[in-house]
Amino acid sequence: MSTVGIIGAGHIGTALAHGLVARGYDVVIANSRGPETLTDLIASLDGKARAATASEAADAADWAIVTVPLKALPDIPAAPLAGKIVLDTCNYYPQRDGRIAALDEKRATTSQLMQEHLPDSKVAKAFNHIVAEQIVTDGSPAGTPDRRALATASDHPEATAFVTALYDDFGYDTVDVGPLGESWRVERDQPAYVVRQNADELRANLARATR
Q: Is residue 153 within 8 Å of 176, Cβ to Cβ?
């Protein structure tokens, strides 16, 4: 199995770490406070993950997940993520992140900002519109009636295909939103955000989104 670098150890990062370890991935996880603060999390992962700095996690990763408050995006190390698929789970909360003009003025999406910060990576939106605890509980086998669906978006077809396979491994159907410029349709306050929906319902909610 490949090694996943997870930068961000909040609710989503923790849930994904548990889900990935359960599926046989090697996980290297970092937060903003330092590896020594992740002792309890690493213990809960049965020793199948290790804590590191953000740069170490990025360097060790075959592919990565960035799941941090959007205001922390400038701190994400770009060079060690060059050439790698990077999953962006981030959402914009102005009361936490401060005002970001490009988002307020609808000139960019959160994932476009990440792609701009990581110009040599292949960024894909993933796992941003599901409650963290549900990531490892709501999945079901392929073909299950009313199977829950999640959306992805990327400017790189190989990243979209990667997320599609990963979603299926976690028990979800995939709806491809298109390029990162369309990923606003699954951002905060849109109809598809943090509601349970099957693929048809998700497509309908994406179509109903207004910017």
A: yes
Q: What tokens does 136 get?
A: 């490892």
Contacts of 31 (CB under 8 A, 6+ apart): 8, 9, 10, 13, 37, 38
CA–CA dist 190, 209 (Å, integer): 6
Write out pLDDT tens, residues 172-206.
999 999 999 999 999 999 999 999 999 999 999 99
Round to whole Å and give the CA distance between 97 and 206: 25
Q: Is the pLDDT of residue 78 over 80?
A: yes
Dihedral of CA atoms 74, 20, 154, 173 in degrees, nearest 10, equals: -150
Per-residue tokens: 25: 């991935």
Q: Which amino acid is located at 132 in the chain?
A: A
What class, spelled out in words, does domain 3-208 have in CATH? Answer: alpha beta
Q: Estimate to the nearest angstrom the gap between the alpha carbon of 45 and the chain centroid.
A: 19
pLDDT of amino acid 64 = 98
- Taking only the tens place, the pLDDT of each residue in 57-71 is 999 999 999 999 999
In whole angstroms, what is the distance from residue 145 CA to residue 159 CA? 27
Phi, psi at 7, each rounded to 5°: -105, 105
Domain-wise residue ranges, the chain: 3-208
Is the pTM here over 0.85, yes or no?
yes
